Amino acid sequence: MGTEQAHDQESTPTAARPTKSRFAGPLGRLSIAGVVLAVAGAAVWYFGELATPDDGPAASEIPALQVDPAPVRPGTDVPVYTDVAEEQPEPQAGGASDDPLAVWAAEAADATGVPSRALWAYANAELAVRAEQPQCRLSWATLAGIGRIESDHGRYGGTRLGADGRPEKPIIGVPLDGSPGVRAIADTDGGALDGDPRYDRAVGPMQFIPTTWATWATDGNGDGRADPHQIDDAAAAAARYLCADGRDMSSAEGWWAGLMSYNRSVEYGQKVFGLADSYARAVDQRRQ
Q1: Distance CA 54, CA 2 (A)
Q2: Helix orientation angle between 100-112 and 266-287, rounded to the nearest 10 degrees
Q3: What pLDDT, in 10s, does the model give residues 31-60?
Q4: Cα–Cα distance, 230 to 20 (Å, whole number)
């Protein structure tokens, strides 16, 4: 699909081996493994070097998903921080239902225009990493910003998320065949995830490529399997990836390091920033 599909494959955060979450029940068994690659997360920001993507796919965006970048310099600011209310109980496996998290998601959907099923997944992922890595302070809004760019929250191509968290039609990216603006990544999974036996493709609502999913695959809803096409799993994997290496995603340094590890493009980070900030502000205003 666009620049947001194939992420830099050359380096990954530490803690790359799959791990099991201590949550076997409500938050889902997060047997870690999943999403895009890492670039070195630096404490000092070299704006000239980061001004354009480095080793990224650099393909043109999907027109329907074009998003304007926020006018912010990397490492200088973070989106408005908002989290899922502390009083929310742990969500139950199986996705959106009449639990309090689903009530929150429905209200947030009214405020943001993001589908409630997608918001449930982003919030569920936030709660999971909050419990496992409290220093990370990742907000659901950042995951929502990524999900908007990668697949329009599971709606790209006219599909939509079902109650089970899977798009009605699989969301499969372009072949990573080395064509102009696209990295060349020969098939690594026998086409198991993307249906392509020649080249890897990004898949699912958060657009994982098979090699990164093999490393970071996550069961985010406790159903016993990790599936990049299922939004609870994909969002949980993205959250774990962003929080790698002890990052504090509520700090400017940590947030930008996380986004640069997800996609080595300043413009990508600026787009996620603008979306996350607008989503967070909309929900905060509704709370007032």
Answers
A1: 15
A2: 110
A3: 333 333 332 233 234 333 333 333 322 233
A4: 18
Pure H helices in the chain: 47-50, 100-112, 116-132, 140-151, 210-216, 231-242, 252-262, 266-287
Q: Which amino acid is located at 84 in the chain?
A: V
pLDDT higher for 187 or 44? 187
Please tell me whether the overall predicted TM-score, pTM, comes out greater than 0.90 for this model. no
Determine whether 22 is exposed, middle or buried from the number of CB atoms within 10 Å of its CB (0-12, 13-18, 19+). exposed
Dihedral sign computed on CA atoms, order 67, 115, 151, 16:
positive
What is the C-alpha to C-alpha distance for residues 221 and 255, in angstroms, rounded to an integer? Answer: 25
pLDDT in tens, 239-255: 999 999 999 999 999 99
Instruction: Give yes or no for a contact between 277 and 252, defined as CB atoms under 8 angstroms apart.
Output: no
Residue 173 and residue 209: Cα distance in Å, rounded?
9
- pLDDT, residue 181, reads 80
Q: Tokens 């947001």 identify what position?
A: 4
Listed in sequence order, the residues at least 6 apart from 49 whose beta carbon sits closer than 8 Å to its beta carbon are none
Contacts of residue 62, defined as CB under 8 A and 6 or more positions apart, other chains included, come to 1, 2, 156
User: How many angstroms separate the CA atoms of 259 and 275, rounded?
Assistant: 13
Judged against a pLDDT cut of 70, whether residue 14 lies above it is answered with no
Quote the mean pLDDT of the chain: 78
What residues are paired with 33 via a beta bridge? 216
Domains plus CATH for the chain? 63-84+99-167+218-287 (1.10.530)
